[in-house]
Please model this.
Amino acid sequence: MGNGDLKILPLGQRESQIKVNGQGQPRRTVGSQPMEVLEERVFHSMLTLERRRAERSRKPYVLMLLDANLENGSAEGILKEAINVIVAAKRETDLIGWYRKGAILGIIFTEVSLEGETPVTERLRTKIETAFITHMGKDRASKIAISMHTEG
Model:
């Protein structure tokens, strides 16, 4: 992300701190959440815009939903841990946000290619699952259910 890029923050919040990620790059956060994560209302708005863009351009997108619906209430904690993994694994143009605050995290993979032997949904699922296992461990990664949705 360049210096002139605009980041959308939730209304009434300011960039509160800058942390450095493992590659020495500055990473902006709001509280403890990376700025790359959109609040639920904004994420749904961006999803609507992406759906319209895909209809016009005929370039599909994939919506990945991550659900860690656990009985003991630790779902939000696991998903917040997963955010750091996703931020490192996604492309700059992909969007991360709360599909349902504290319960379901969404990733919009924009302008994906449907070409290739392996379906794009399987390639993306494998990439994210591998990153979760590598950075969170197999046990914690297995608590996140992944669903894939393609449009465009």
The chain has one domain: 35-151. The two ends are 26 Å apart (CA to CA).
